[in-house]
Amino acid sequence: MYTTKMKQPLMAVMSMAVGLCACTPAQEAPVSETATETPTASVNNEAGRLDTMAARFAPTEIVADLSRLSPADRQVLAKLVQASKIMDALYLRQVWAGNEAMLLDLIRDQTPEGRARLHYFLINKGPWSRLDDNEVIVPGAPPKSPGANFYPEGATKEELERWIASLPQAERARATGFFTVVRRSGPTFTLVPYNQEYQNELTQAAALLREAAGLASEPTLKAYLTSRAGAFLSNDYYDSDVAWMDLKGTVEPTIGPYEVYEDEWFNYKAAFESFVTVLDEAETAKLQRFAGELQDIENNLPIDPKLRNPKIGASAPIVVVNEIYASGDANHGVQTAAFNLPNDERVISAKGSKRVMLKNVQDAKFAKILTPISRVVLTPEDQKELAFEAFFTHILVHELMHGLGPHNITVGGRQTTVRQELKDTYSAIEEAKADISSLFAIQFMIDKGVLAKSLERQLYITFLASTFRAIRFGINEAHGSGIAIQLNTLLDKGAVTVRSDGTFAVDLAKAKEAVTGLTRDIMTIQAEGNYAAARDLRDRLGVVRPQVQAALDKLMSVPVDIEPRFTTADELVAEANRSRGR
Ligand SMILES: [Zn+2]
Asked: Theoretical Cys-Cys bridge with 269: which of 150, 289, 423, 450, CB 3.0 to 4.6 Å?
């Protein structure tokens, strides 16, 4: 166990470590092609190896326009950034009990190797490289435990399963709940609620949220911050999750224990994270405009008219925001560009859930990852058409299109769902549907005059470049496999052609046809609940072909993701400190 004394300065140390790392010159260096293409050449020293690993994350300033914010709201944001730094420290401890002590050791090491190691440790929030199957990057660190620090060190999954099964029902619900950790108690285990396990930090975070609530003028923001502060102390998050669904206004924070991915054993335990964001009004207005078009799009889907839904339901709320700061589980390795919360089923059945899209994070990925990819994979003429507007519009419409097309279906007189019928193929097919049908939907809106004609070529070309970004993450997960199905279809239909130099180009007329055809094929498979056809599609087309692999091989020097530098957040905190000094 760590003493309170040790916990207190750690948050300060964490921010110091991040600040200190920001000036490491190695980070700013562009990814060297030779270094990545022939890794053995750079393994001659450990600092170089760590820098090469870190360089897969391109340092990127995350900025947001706050010109329309009141001075009070700027102070609210500064308080939220401070509270978010506490989430960072808590998350670090949730990942591994040894993380805090190791971080303090790493900070003391001023050798080039030590500095490189600290930098990469901070990217990963621990001594394991998340992009490399959790390879150990700090000598002496144990292999990463799938149960993280939610469960006692040395406990096995089977042991915990037996113990959980032996508990009376109410206890079992707590054991499998989001907000408790399991600790040893003599020969057996015991449950410790988060408000006890993380009492010091949560008390401080609650105080900051209360101060922020005191400064805020928007009632729904006050309500969320006040009830979330209460939840930190009571361990009951229900009301504050409900209040989060009701948030209105410009400041849009998400702070607390949320996602369960870090608990790889059971996906029970929520990891601390924070997103401090502000609403993007222009994009939100655009989204509303699209929502008004959805029924018309559904009525014109290229499927048998009797499969169309004459009255589509209200779609789940989507907000488009710009990120000011992200911490904890929301800031390690590959950065989150969109999230869906809450996870508590009780809240979802009462209030639904909300999708939050981080526009400036998408923009950063577009600039630092997709643009360099496009220079390698597209012909020079097509590359000129790459456009963020097209990229982001496709992302927005993708989310909306999940709501269109077949969901509840009848197979052989039996009421069922697409999900049940398509089983293991469902996710890949559904992701492919959302992607390809959003090209169809955007084209529909262009033809209708809702969107500018100038978007047309940009749309297909930007989508083509983005398929390589997605496939690079692997086709073993739903999105990559779904993307491969689409890219191979476009190739087979001549909508995408490969030049002799290995670059790819779009044939606009054929692309429109192929998009309509694949939208029809996929939605028909879904409407029929045709598992055999879905499997055939996935197995035949959800593959990486040699031409595509050759292009992927040329992308070795392009970063995988970004490493955010929260410039706007730093300014806000500095500003708040100055006004306090006055
Ligand atoms: Zn999707």
From this structure: 150
List, as one string, the DSSP characters of 303-324: S-GGGS-SSPPPPPPEEEEEEE
CA of 434 relative to ligand 1 center, distance in Å: 6
Cα three-residue angle 530-533-535, rounded to 5 degrees: 105
Of 84, 110, 140, the residue that ends a domain is: 140
What is the per-residue burial (b if ≥16 Cβ within 10 Å, else e) of 226-259? Answer: bbbbbbbeebebebbbbbbbebeebbbbbbbbbb
Give 399 Cα–ligand 1 centroid separation in angstroms: 6
Distance CA 569, CA 80 (A): 10
Ligand 1 centre to CA of 355 (Å) is 11
Distance 29 CA to ligand 1 centre (A): 34
Residue 260 lies in a domain: no
Under 8 Å CB-to-CB from 516, ≥6 apart: which residues? 302, 440
Query: Is the pLDDT score of 166 beyond 90?
Result: yes
Check pLDDT > 50 for residue 4: no
Residue 10 pLDDT: 60
What is the domain range of residue 494? Answer: 369-544
23-40 pLDDT, tens digit per residue, is: 333 333 333 333 343 444
Number of domains in the chain: 2
Q: Could you give the CA distance from residue 38 to residue 311 in angstroms, rounded to a whole number? A: 57
Q: Tell me how many degrees the CA angle 577-580-582 measures, rounded to the nearest 5.
A: 115
